[in-house]
Amino acid sequence: MSHVVVAPDKFKGSLTAPQVAAAVARGLREAVPDVDVRLLPVADGGDGTVDAAVAAGFLKVGRWVAGPLGKPVPASFAVRGTTAVVEVASAAGLTLLERPAPLNATSHGVGELLKAALDVGCTTIVLGLGGSACTDGGAGMLEALGKTSFEGIDLVLASDVDNPLLGPSGAAAVYGPQKGASPEQVEVLEARLADFASRIGPEHASRPGAGAAGGIGFAALAVLGARFRPGIEVVLELAGFAEAVRDASLVITGEGSLDAQTRHGKAPYGVVRASGDVPVVAVAGRCSVEPGDLGLKAAYALLDVEPDVTRCMVQADSLLTVLGGRIARDWVSQ
Ligand SMILES: O=C(O)[C@H](O)CO
Q1: Which atom from ligand 1 is nearest to the alpha carbon of 132?
Q2: CATH classification of 3-40+246-331 is 3.40.50.10350, yes or no?
Q3: How sure is the predictor about 190, in pLDDT bands with cuts at 50, 70 and 90?
Q4: Is the dihedral of CA 234, 280, 321, 13 positive or negative?
Q5: Which top CATH class is 49-232?
Q6: Global confidence as pTM
């Protein structure tokens, strides 16, 4: 019997991607005990990118760095050979703050993590962009790096979005509000970013991904010679997805919400695109789009099993196991 690849992203606010994968696999195995399941939790560059690398065989390295408000936080990056995976969210993530601080959150700790990755001898550094608390254009990161040179270093941005730095689809306007910024604060952030860009390299402000992670993308492109890539593509490569999906009979992906945004660089859509002819189904907390529009054969939502949203979040693990069982009955031959 050929195998099933389980490659979900996290369910934000409830389960990490490895936890989602494990819960679905449990359901598959309960329904079809001899099913061959391969777990490949993924991420889009935002939180969970280091976890995905670790699940793919990288080693986790811990470091205390300045958190989004300067207070030390235990952060981590992942290393395999001379490649490091550094995640913005680990040092400057929104989830690290008790209360949002849109005007004051800094990317300083990200610079410290990059330095640490260079110090252990890494020459390729994947920088996962997304899930950040800051909108400082990467100024804090550059300050922490000081005169550190990236010459000879391949710095690859694994970005959750491809927005430019400025304007109506820029870092402040689009992502400021989700970091707690009021309309007036968005204007302040936009003005700060425009001023910073005019001093650092205005020609880089419109590049895809310059607006990712509060403008850390911009600083990395303009000053550190980074190259932009969609995060899910980089993560699938690091995880050896192409190899894992070969001869598979089914791929199961998913994330908390399957919606209109999913087509725009979200992990499940990247998984569909990388799966070729292998059928792909998804699990989700909720699904507000036609599965077929995302190239999915079917979508299984927690809300179809448990209509109460709070219970869905709290019991996500056991509900995903129920969905795993349903998928096994619908798609895996006994
Ligand atoms: O961190 C952020 O600002 C968003 O996730 C977009 O990258």
Answers
A1: 1
A2: yes
A3: very high
A4: positive
A5: alpha beta
A6: 0.93
